[in-house]
Amino acid sequence: MFIKTQFSIKDLENLSGVKAHTIRIWEKRYNLLEPARTDTNIRKYDLINLKKLLNITLLYNEGYKISKIAGFKEEEITKLIHSLSKNNKEDFALQAFKTAMFDFDRALFNKTYKELAKTKNFREIFYEVFLPLLHEIGLLWQTGTIDPTHERFISELIKQKILINTTQLQEKYTNRKVPSFVLYLPYEEIHEIGLLFANYEIILAGFDTVYLGSNIPMEGLSYILKHYEEITFLSYFTVKPDKESLYEYVDRFQKTLGSTTMPLWVMGYKTLGVIDSKLPKNVKVVESLEELRMRLQKLKSS
Q: Helix, strand, or coil here: 208?
């Protein structure tokens, strides 16, 4: 697979948040970047230029004048960023994670995560850093600024952190509250981070889970019913189903499981625009992870 290592000025705009017109001015007036040019005189930037612009943007957003930044040597910029990162951990962590993504640098990812973990718990890291990062990466992927290889690399590292913290919770909490939750992704759905973190939140709230993961045929869910009397199914819909509406999926779910009372909570992009009143009473749309937390707290107190 071709891995993107050359970027257009529009890519740099998407990645840094600095308008292409401004990048051109910085480039011309201060020689901040050194792009190559195609035979038709179109700018092409390599990873070195990209990372330099990300660092410059961080300092610029912290109030440093571009004329002053232009006079800094590379090692001075690195030292200054390290110093400033102590007071603005989230923004600097986002920049470091993006750099790790482009360099496929697992060590940088883990180092940045460990720094965050000194002052934040895992839930704070996920909501304050990982979620904004994933949202930005999604937009970058949709615009063609990054390729799937970059997106998968950083997503898999985030998934590893969720799994590690989930395992620690499971070892900590031994007394479970009912009902149990069964979490799964629909058939051919592979976007798992949302479901993984929902699993983490449910366990943190004190409930037991049966985590089935991605790409689960609906027929297989019926086997769960032989082992649990009181359960709630939870599924996360990002790109699937794509050949039927969510209403049709829910109808098929009830027919397959032979029940119109089995609770099903649905989350994800595909639930946008779904009207609750058109769903069976046992099916609930959970619009966000924050709403999931609220529902779990309410369930605990009932």
A: strand
